[in-house]
Design brief:
Layout: E1 8-10, E2 36-38, H1 50-54, E3 59-62, E4 75-78, H2 80-88, E5 97-100, H3 108-120, E6 125-131, H4 136-142, E7 147-150, H5 160-164, H6 170-184, E8 194-198, H7 204-212, E9 217-220, H8 222-225, E10 234-238, E11 241-247, H9 252-259, E12 270-274, H10 279-297, H11 302-305, E13 310-312, H12 315-321
Parallel strand pairs: 2-3, 2-9, 3-4, 4-5, 5-6, 6-7, 7-8, 8-9
Antiparallel strand pairs: 1-13, 10-11, 11-12
Helix pairs in contact: 2-3
Length: 325
């Protein structure tokens, strides 16, 4: 049975929590960043605003069309052919952060190249995706892939699900991956790929629910498109609010941005989103909300928060209290 994020709730602690101030809770990863990747979308990130995002508490990824001079700690998006070329190139990829930015993470070639790359460059930090079945997680661990994006077709500007029928809800997928991890604990495969929940996380609570369900990170696009700092074109102003273009990278516009033309049947749409806050305001709000959620569950670190107890609610119950803006 599949569940939507609207049907998921996080349960509070079953015993009194030894906590006086929420500021004592650590909502950051080991590099002092929130567990959030900014989706490498050309209507959100470009070479002009990359440094703004990079200096914040979130983790941006440069889109595939950027030739921005990047450092090893910068996350860059590459196509599969570009990744294959770099493996054979004379460049030492150790220490670089690379996302093989393609939608279908079920291709055998990805895992063959990943194994080849990690054997040649053991300090390469690699992310692949997207996957729509928890069974693929096993192959990620065997290939020593550092991060995998999970979910197909759930993004607000993605039409893959309604066009192809391929879809797996994020809660169901994350719970399934937790089961695979338990199975792997009984094998000789010791490497654990980090989970990046990706798609449809257009409100803070949905992102936090994914973390509670076991995701190491979340990836958000629509949310950052609404920030003043995003690079998408402002189309018009209505009642004092700017409205910006937003589109999926598999849409016609997205394909043109990264490939110069339409290379496949579009699986994305173009929509308009309001610009309603600054990046700093969003980060502060997310941080406060995550700390609050962690305090209710009695967890001081993200590692412990991923073990939260969850429950299922009806959509009607969800609609009765939902007031997230």
């Amino acid at each position: 049975m599949q569940y939507s994020l609207d049907e998921i709730v996080i349960c509070g602690s079953s015993q009194p929590v030894d906590l006086e101030h929420r500021s004592d809770i650590n909502p950051y990863d080991n590099k002092g960043k929130l567990p959030i990747f900014v989706s490498p979308m050309t209507c959100v990130i470009d070479k002009n605003n990359y440094e703004i995002f990079k200096k914040s508490k979130v983790i941006p990824i440069l889109p595939r069309n950027c030739d921005y001079p990047y450092a090893k700690e910068d996350w860059i998006g590459l196509s599969l052919p570009e990744f294959e070329y770099l493996i054979e190139d004379e460049l030492d990829l150790n220490g670089y952060h690379v996302l093989v930015d393609i939608a279908n993470g079920h291709m055998e070639k990805i895992y063959k190249l990943a194994k080849q790359a990690k054997e040649k460059f053991p300090e390469l930090v690699l992310m692949v995706g997207n996957i729509a079945h928890e069974g693929m997680y096993r192959y990620c661990c065997e290939a020593k892939i550092d991060y995998v994006r999970v979910s197909v077709g759930s993004g607000s500007a993605c039409s893959t699900s309604c066009l192809t029928g391929v879809h797996r809800s994020l809660p169901t997928l994350l719970m399934g991956i937790n089961n695979i991890k338990t199975e792997l604990d009984k094998t000789d495969v010791k490497f654990r790929t980090k989970i990046v929940a990706d798609g449809g996380l257009n409100t803070i609570d949905k992102a936090i629910k994914c973390l509670a369900l076991g995701a190491d990170y979340v990836m958000m696009g629509n949310t950052f498109a609404r920030c003043e700092e995003a690079c998408g074109k402002i189309l018009y102003n209505k009642d004092g609010i700017d409205y910006r273009e937003y589109y999926g990278m598999a849409s016609e516009r997205g394909q043109i941005d990264i490939s110069g033309g339409i290379t496949k049947e579009p699986e994305g749409v173009e929509i308009v989103v309001p610009v309603t806050y600054t990046l700093d305001k969003f980060i502060k709000k997310f941080t406060q909300a995550l700390r609050s959620a962690m305090s209710y569950t009695g967890h001081m670190t993200l590692k412990d928060f991923r073990k939260s107890i969850i429950d299922i609610q009806s959509i009607s119950e969800f609609n009765s209290y939902y007031k997230n803006d």
